[in-house]
Amino acid sequence: MTYVIAQPCVDIKDRACLAECPVDCIYEGERTLYIDPGECVDCHACEPVCPVEAIFAEEELPRHWAHYRAVNEEFFGDGRPQRRDHPVVEALPPQHVRKKEISGFAVRKEEAADADPWFPL
Predict the structure, then answer these.
(1) pLDDT digits over 25-74, tens only?
(2) DSSP code of 34?
């Protein structure tokens, strides 16, 4: 078993997982990160630190991102990382993070009206 990086990482590349990986099996492409399935020791260190929840155990990969198993494997086709991203990643339109997804907290419109800007919560 290995871990797989899926689409939420595309155009985000937070890199927190790079620092946590004890065997340095995570490599950087132009738009996303990839886990080398031949080097991954299934230690689970990378998954909890990913802020966009893009890392999955191979058998827990959501069905709509199941093809990312092959994307990660094919990126290391000849045993070393490719110079360019996988064609599936290259074909994706730019992935944008909406502000509410990266904000520290979300406030409903009616709560925002009651907030005092001089004394933030």
Answers:
(1) 999 999 999 999 999 999 999 999 999 999 999 999 999 999 999 999 99
(2) E
Contact 84, 30 (CB under 8 A): yes
Structure tokens at 71: 């994307």
Measured CA to CA in angstroms, residue 46 lies from 24, 52, 86, 108 at distances of 11, 12, 21, 33
Burial grade of 47 (CB within 10 A; 0-12, 13-18, 19 or more): middle
pTM, two decimal places: 0.78
Structure tokens at 21: 């990986």
Rg of the chain, C-alpha, whole Å: 17
3 state SS of 57:
strand
